[in-house]
Amino acid sequence: VGVMLVALGVFNLTGAANKLRDLPAYNAIRPMAVGIVHGLAGSAAVALIVLAAIGDSWWALAYLLTFGFGTILGMMVMTILMVLPAGYAAQRFHSYHRGMTLASGALSVAFGILISYQTGIAGGLFTANPVWVPR
């Protein structure tokens, strides 16, 4: 997740995100890649914990489909709730658009570095004696 946040932030800071938006393959792959990373970072673990407790395979499949649909629906609603005000602000305050892009890119890079440090170094995942404690 940290690496993805850094990469997306660098894309914003360098303007590469605007150039890549013109490529159809990028527009198809980007949401899928973000979704996969998001799933691996937490949603999949929650689904698998409950899934392991369900004895009947048909109920397990029903749970998995319901969980997946709920996750997709929740992500769509949250995206809409974030995009609408941001889109309005971008149109209304066009002169601030580049500043907001740079600020969001810088915050993404900083947060990505922080998460990577906390997980990899402070958390011990990438040290000589790796430690991983699921939360």
List its salient traits.
single chain, 135 residues, 81% helix, mainly alpha, 5 helices
Characterize the structure shown.
This protein is mainly α. It has five helices and no strands. Helix 1 runs antiparallel to helix 5 and helix 3 runs antiparallel to helix 4. The longest helix is centred in the middle third of the chain and has 36 residues. It starts with a helix and ends in a 13-residue tail after the last helix. The mean pLDDT is 82.
State the gist of this model:
The two termini are 15 Å apart.
Summarize the amount of helix as a percent range.
Answer: over 70%
Low-confidence stretches: none
Q: Mind summarizing the main beta sheet? A: none
Mean pLDDT, all residues? 82
Alpha-beta classification: mainly alpha
Shape type: globular
Distance between the termini: 15 Å
Instruction: Give me the Rg, rounded.
Output: 19 Å
Secondary structure tally, helices: 5
Instruction: Tell me the fraction of residues in β-strands, as a range.
Output: under 5%
Succession of helices and strands: HHHHH
Q: How many runs of DSSP E, i.e. beta strands?
A: 0
